[in-house]
Design brief:
The structure is a single chain. By secondary structure, the protein is mostly helical. About 80% of the residues lie in helices and about 0% in strands. Helix 2 packs antiparallel against helix 8, helix 9 runs parallel beside helix 17 and helix 13 (about 280-310) packs parallel to helix 17.
């Protein structure tokens, strides 16, 4: 029922003598993958901190064009993620990991040297492509080194990285900018990327010719790639229609077209998005729960602080809410990994969904904002760590890469919907008559948590199974 492991476990199966060096090498490679993921995750959060300094130096602040520094990164990541998943199932793990890290290094140099706004946007697009590949590569490396038996607990460690990055990104960005200027926010990536490349090249066990690309000789699914990237990009653009100058109608049209394109994957998918994610299977429920959890989390850490600021909450108080959400994500991920390994998928999913629902209700009532933030983080950490393990476990070993990229794409869609969709809904309700209209958006968020996270969690498999 379980597939054979690689890396450390492979060394053990071949004899006791090489086991310790193989395990040590695998651990070093995993540490390098964690560092690479941390760099990619922090790069997604740091721009908000340095943006005023950047615009003052290279321009781009007029007409809302600065939004492309964030949106360009996100859209490129959407394109890079499925491509990296497809490549991960065909190339040696070292090739993808080193290649993605080198592109990230080059993008960091380009961003640090950028003399114009256009060059900086191009660098951010390159950053997004590389970040999408790094994220997939990191999860695939950990999944293969530890194997199905230990995968859930190990993957929870990577899920913790997102919470750490949410805290460290803005803090490190502000500190580096204050000390040396905003360009060094990107330059500091260079030696760290070099360290990742060396560690992976030396320590990561090879998959071997028999493993790499086994049964994966078909051509690149270009039509499916266009549906995945085009649909996701249109959906993200539609959700950000206001900041990108599309207006409400243009944004709505783009989002609807994007959803239609993604819906077509049920008929034409399989090469980049595993079919079990699109059919009525536990993986499909996990996919829906992933989106819903990220919607609640990112709405909580972006829309709720705006409302708190409008009600007179201090900057410190708002920072506490966001910080507790990030720390909660770390804690939820750490706990979920151990629970999945011992008790299966359902318990952490149910607990996480209840935490997310309670968080949305607290936000809607305006009570105990710090607890709302903490519960959002705990719930998101527990749900996303568990759903990733479920999606990977239910995918054949030969599709581990595309399964991981699909989970990453779902997180991106959920985060964009949480940031922009709930913000737009809150703004629309606030223009209507009556008092307390802003709270209605959070009641909608509570309904989203119940329908998209709690319902799939209640029907998730009790026992953990793997395909292979």
């Amino acid at each position: 029922m379980t597939s054979s492991t690689v890396g450390a476990d492979t060394a053990v199966s071949r004899g006791s003598a090489p086991a310790r060096p193989a395990i040590a090498g695998g651990n070093i490679a995993v540490a390098a993958a964690v560092l690479a993921l941390l760099l990619a995750a922090m790069d997604a959060t740091v721009m908000g901190t340095v943006l005023p300094n950047v615009l003052g130096d290279v321009g781009g602040g007029s007409g809302g064009g600065y939004a492309w520094l964030v949106s360009g990164f996100m859209l490129a990541q959407v394109a890079g993620t499925p491509l990296a998943g497809w490549a991960a199932d065909r190339l040696d793990d070292r090739v993808l990991a080193i290649g993605a890290t080198l592109v990230f290094l080059a993008a960091s140099v380009l961003a640090g040297l950028a003399g114009s706004f256009g060059v900086l946007v191009a660098a951010r697009v390159l950053h997004g492509l590389a970040a999408g590949a790094i994220i997939v590569s990191s999860y695939v490396i950990v999944g293969r080194v530890f194997g199905p038996e230990r995968r859930a607990k190990a993957q929870s460690m990577l899920s913790m990285v997102w919470g750490v990055a949410a805290v460290l990104g803005p803090v490190v960005g502000a500190a580096v900018t204050e000390a040396w200027g905003w360009r060094w926010v990107f330059f500091v990536n260079v030696p760290l990327c070099a360290l990742v490349v060396v560690a992976i090249a030396v320590a990561l066990p090879g998959r071997g010719d028999a493993k790499a690309g086994q049964g994966q000789r078909s051509g690149f699914p270009a039509a499916e790639f266009l549906l995945v990237t085009g649909g996701s990009a249109l959906l993200l653009v539609g959700l950000q229609g206001g900041s990108l100058g599309l207006g409400a109608i243009g944004g709505a049209v783009a989002a609807v077209v994007g959803l239609v394109a993604l819906a077509l994957l049920r008929r034409f998918g399989g090469g980049l998005v595993p079919r079990q994610v699109l059919a009525r299977t536990p993986s499909a429920g996990a996919a829906l729960a992933t989106v819903g959890a990220c919607v609640v989390m990112y709405a909580t850490v972006t829309v709720l602080p705006v409302r708190l600021a409008a009600s007179g909450t201090s900057t410190t108080g708002i920072a506490v809410v966001v910080g507790l959400a990030a720390l909660g994500w770390v804690a939820g991920s750490a706990i979920a990994g151990g629970v999945v390994a011992k008790r299966g998928y359902r318990p952490p999913l149910v607990v996480g969904s209840l935490a997310l629902t309670a968080s949305a209700v607290l936000s809607a009532t305006g009570e105990i904002a710090w607890l709302a933030g903490m519960l959002a983080g705990i719930g998101t950490g527990a749900v996303t760590a568990t759903t990733l393990a479920l999606i990977q476990d239910q995918s054949p070993p030969a599709q581990l890469g595309v399964a991981t990229s699909a989970a990453t794409m779902l997180r991106n869609i959920g985060s964009a919907a949480g940031v922009n969709g709930i913000a737009a809904l809150s703004a629309a309700l606030a223009t209507g008559p009556g008092h307390g209209q802003d709270n209605r958006a959070f009641w909608v968020l509570a309904a989203v948590a119940v329908l998209t996270v709690l319902v799939p969690a209640a029907s998730a498999p009790r026992r953990r199974t793997t395909t292979g």
